[in-house]
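Exam revision sheet. Question 4 asks you to relate a sequence to its structure. Input first:
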Amino acid sequence: MKKHTEPLFAEQFYHIYNRGINGTDVFIEEKNYAFFLNKYIQYIEPIAETYAYSLLKNHFHIMVRMRSVEEIIGAVQPKVKVKGGAGANVGEVLNLADVELDPEILASKLISRRFGTFFNSYSQAINKVHGRTGSLFEEPFRRIPINSENYGCWLIYYIHANPQKHRFVDDFREYPHSSWHSFLSKANTRIKRNEALDWFGGLKGFLHFHNDKNPLDESSIFGIELD
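Answer key, structure tokens:
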């Protein structure tokens, strides 16, 4: 099977990551980071829960857990357009072949489509503003299944430490475009903070793990290929 084309399944954890095509920047202006997250909330949050993220100038890393089959299908079911109604939202149309699929297979197809729509929507907006054409991200986007809490802990650390690994900052704790700060805050967050902290045994364990570990040059343990 071609790399990075493995199907994505409901209720599974994944490491989703990608970079700009040919290593080009995907976040060109400071405001692009917030714009990307707003698009993410619009397209991906209805089908996935987010456990960690880091957005860097030319690539990103996100850890997610896909929602249930019912939630995923429900999130993209077309809304009925009332005849003569103004401004009705038709939504995403499912074709006959989709409707006849097993629900789990349908949910898997919808996950991939939704990520594709997300990346395309962001890319088109960036292209329009900056007068560029063509793809912005490499295709297909990268995905790695997460099969244990221990791996999940290491991955959360890796995602948070990534800005330091790539020398955007001397200390990843100072980087503004990651979920690190959401874990330290008591404010409401879209990150599944409490669930992730439980893997570390609480906030104290989370902080100790991040302070004590330093596999910044060992991306091979995560099967990551961006070079």
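Marking note for examiners. The longest helix spans residues 103-130.
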